[in-house]
Amino acid sequence: CEDCGKSLVGECKLHGPLIRAKDRVIPSRARLTLPHYLTLRVLELRAGNQQILGVFAKKVIQKRTQFGPYVGQLSTKLTRYDESRLVLQVLKDGGKYFLDTPNEDCGNWMMFVRLARNQEEQTLVAYQHCGEVYFATVKPIEPHTELKVWYAADYAKFMEASAVFIKEESDVCPLPSVGKEPVDPWTCPSCRSTFATFALLESHQCIHKDRV
Questions:
Q1: Measuring CA to CA, how many Å separate 55 from each of 114, 143, 148, 176, 203?
Q2: Is residue 185, in this structure, part of any structural domain at all?
Q3: Domain C2H2-type: where (predicted)?
Q4: What does pTM read for this prediction?
Q5: What's the confidence (pLDDT) of residue 186?
Q6: Could you give the number of structural domains in the chain?
């Protein structure tokens, strides 16, 4: 105790306990990598305060949008199995390895994407390229829709899994019908101009980069 100059076990009976200041709680690495137009939602709370999470779109995401690569640790054994997530493997240096994500501090946001149970709810395909795994959208994803993934056809053969086929969708994202929530426009952070799609915003931002 600095007030009475004594070394004590526990609190000082004369001057009382220390006021404990806790460190600020920061998000995990995986949560910090989440793109700004995606959000995590708690879908279920299980025993032991275990949260079942899903990744949802906040704005319209165009077809053929690529995410990745998936961040995980190469392992000969799968140390963490979740029946709601895809098992991922890659071919590197002639060997087949699992892409293992033991905890949120070792991976990126893609570890939260749940697998698609059928063709109707699938919005992403997982595929392997140069020893990395990427996700790509197979149709336009509307706001408040959960991103769900299954293997692409070639990757399904590699994983010895069945393929889920997605029927071809129009490249044009449908306009929201009357009664649905309005879709927020994409806003440029530099000049505050707004655009109807993410692709238009990306093209516009290239102009700012060229000027710089």
A1: 8, 11, 8, 21, 26
A2: no
A3: 186-212
A4: 0.68
A5: 64
A6: 1
